[in-house]
Specification:
Belongs to the diphosphomevalonate decarboxylase family. It is globular and about 65 Å long. With 327 residues, the chain is of the alpha+beta class. 35% of the residues lie in helices and 26% in strands. Strand 8 (150-154) and strand 9 form a beta hairpin. Strands 1, 4, 5, 6, 7, 8, 9 and 14 form an 8-stranded mixed beta sheet that branches. Strands 11-12-10-13 form a 4-stranded antiparallel beta sheet. Strands 2-3 form a two-stranded antiparallel sheet. It has helices at residues 71-83, 107-121, 128-136, 191-201, 205-224, 228-247, 258-272, 296-307; strands at residues 2-16, 21-23, 28-29, 33-50, 57-60, 63-64, 90-97, 150-154, 163-168, 175-180, 277-280, 288-292, 312-315, 322-324. It has 2 domains: 2-172, Ribosomal Protein S5, domain 2 (2-Layer Sandwich); 175-315, Alpha-Beta Plaits (2-Layer Sandwich). Helix 5 (205-224) packs antiparallel against helix 6. The chain binds ligand DP6.
């Protein structure tokens, strides 16, 4: 007997970052976080449980993964098998849709789509809170990609209490995120390793926990009030303080490269020229710029001159998880 389902999930950019786990097995974070789901970057995943298979078979962007590279997916499918009556192995076919071969695909959209497709194919009927909790077990940031728009991840303290909650799902605020592709290659220090090192060795970590609490308290009412300046200043300062945890870890490390610093300088110059925009970045050098739709043209023009037009991608708020009908 076979059972198949397909799901699409979009990636998200954190405005208040998740950077550290309280429980590395269950992926319970040290703090809450808040993100914006983006329309341009998404993953489509089909899962088929098939009694004829002798192992899980994982194909990503047309390439079959070795058993070793498929370990995270296999472990995740084991969770779904435990929760359901499905015992067979599965075929997983996943396609990351990114505008260029940009290395912007993320574990957030991947594990959110896998959670949706695998649970549905296994015959589980999970509401979106339960799906968010399941996605969390694959990758923390996937917790938020179940929902569209602005999403908060409540840290919680155990498996039941740690999940995403939409703050504004249908965003009617004319804002955008301009993504700069400054280095398409895989990050050298994964977020998983990096955040663990910050928790264990940065003397600033206790201050970070207070910063996140304060930033969440500031950014949520600002989003609801469409107060662009407060949202922008909060997200930029939150990102820089997260990255201060990498420089203050031992051994120290950084996700910035020379182009990252140059692009930050350009954002400051744009602001000085009256184009209000703010930057953030995750565990890699690619800067993302938060702006109002009315400023997209000025921002893309400036960065296309600096880094080439193919490396500038405009995204808008995106939707939550979707289940796609089989062709
Ligand atoms: C900097 O979700 O990739 O993007 O839970 O270990 O899979 P794991 O980490 P991951 O970390 C994301 C870190 C971040 C900030 C964020 O998305 O909140």
């Amino acid at each position: 007997m076979t059972a198949t389902a397909t799901a699409r999930a979009h990636t998200n950019i954190a405005l208040v970052k998740y950077w550290g786990k309280a429980d590395t097995d269950l992926i319970i974070p040290q703090t809450g976080s808040l993100s914006l789901t983006l329309d341009q970057f998404y993953t489509d995943t089909t899962v088929t449980f098939d009694e004829g298979l002798t192992a899980d078979d994982v194909i990503v962007n047309g390439e079959r993964l070795s058993a070793q590279r498929a370990t995270k997916v296999h472990n995740f499918l084991n969770l779904v098998r435990q929760q359901s009556s499905r015992a067979s192995f599965a075929r997983v076919t996943s396609v990351n849709h990114v505008p260029t071969a940009a290395g912007l695909a993320s574990s957030a959209s991947a594990f959110a789509a896998l959670a949706g497709a695998a649970s549905q194919a296994a015959g589980l009927t999970l509401d979106r809170t339960a799906l968010s909790r399941l996605a969390r077990r694959g990758s923390g940031s996937a917790t938020r990609s179940i929902f569209g728009g602005f999403v908060e991840w409540h840290a919680g303290h155990d498996d039941l209490s740690s999940y995403g909650v939409p703050l504004v799902e249908k965003v009617e605020w004319p804002i955008a995120v301009v993504a700069l592709v400054l280095d398409p290659h895989h990050k050298k220090i994964s977020s998983r390793q990096g955040m663990q090192s910050s928790v264990n060795t940065s003397p600033f970590y206790p201050a970070w926990q207070q910063i996140v609490a304060d930033d969440l308290a500031a950014i949520k009412p600002a989003i609801l009030a469409q107060d662009f300046t407060t949202v922008g200043e909060t997200l930029e300062s939150n990102a820089m303080r997260m990255h201060a945890l990498t420089l203050s870890a031992w051994p120290p490390y950084s996700y910035f490269n020379g182009d990252t610093l140059a692009a930050m300088q350009t954002v400051k110059e744009l602001r000085a020229a009256g184009v209000e925009c703010y930057y953030t970045l995750d565990a890699g050098p690619n800067l993302k710029i938060f702006c109002q739709n009315s400023d997209i043209a000025a921002i893309t023009k400036r960065f296309s001159q600096q880094f080439g037009g193919d490396n500038v991608i405009v995204a808008h708020p995106g939707p939550g998880i979707q289940f796609l009908d089989e062709a």
